[in-house]
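Q: Structure tokens for this one, please.
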Amino acid sequence: MARPPLPIGTWGNIRTEKLGPNRYCARARFRDYDGSTRDVEATDTTGPAAIRALKVKLRDRAAPNDDEITRETHISRLASLWLDEITAEERLAPQTISQYEVSVRVSVVPALGNLRIREATVSRIDKFLRKVAEDRPTAARLAKVVLTQMLALAVRRGALPTNPVRDSGRLRSPRRKVVALEMEQLEGVRAAIQRWQQATPGKPGPRHTGDLGDIVDLMLATGARIGEILALRWKDLDLAAERPTLTICGTIIYLKGKGFFRQDWTKSDAGFGTVVLPRFAVGMLMTRKLNAADNPAMRSSPPGAAPGCLHRTSAANGVKLAPTLASNGSRHTPSARPSPP
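A: Here is the predicted structure, written as tokens:
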């Protein structure tokens, strides 16, 4: 009767052999994950030490293959292969891939890049994510998404039996407090913008345009994000209607190597829509239309300038409201809109 084969991932009796002074070899037959049985050996200065070295080798054994990803592959190399794969698939938006690249470079590789895939245990990953979450909860959540997909690739290539990220602890999402600006705060922002836009004799650099004040007023009039306001085109407006409207149908995004450009869809499905404009916004837009000539875009300054100007304006004038406004505070400030004329 034939001897039954070893179960997958197990080994038979370990044999030792003295090779010379202070040199021992331990051997065993191991049934690999591809079903083949192979000889595996390890050497050390004593017999027991060689057996211990062999057991470690057997524990971390992976079936030999021609794939670039094995249990011995470093996390940094896995990250590079994963980024190449998702870029080639063209399934994700370019800005999403850009965010993943930043997370890999800033968070994942510095902390875990020198580990081998087999060393990426649940406890190590959980500790890493919680450490990042202490100061940067958003970065920790993004790093968890990145690691989940990276190690899912390792599972698909046979380097891991399961994905360790899935058993890591849940990251708490701190409840964000919605901030609505009071009228006094709003007037402070608008006054700071007006001071900033005034020409300063002897100050070098280009003259400030009137874009920033109009951008803020339009954010308040519509509740739109700053990127959505910067992406508006004249064809998105109907100022001649009985009830003038504005259609939000795109946003401005930034990609490394490409710069700022208009994306023909909003950040979320909820962002797309048509808004009835209040009278003060219609008056401002009509004035800009008269001065726009043949410019199809509503802005006269580069799209990346407005958010930075908004932050610098508040800092230079001692008003600490611009970060709130730039991060969607205007979306919750209906009572702070300027009164119609």
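A few notes: The radius of gyration is 30 Å. Confidence is low (pLDDT under 50) at residues 311-330, 334-341.
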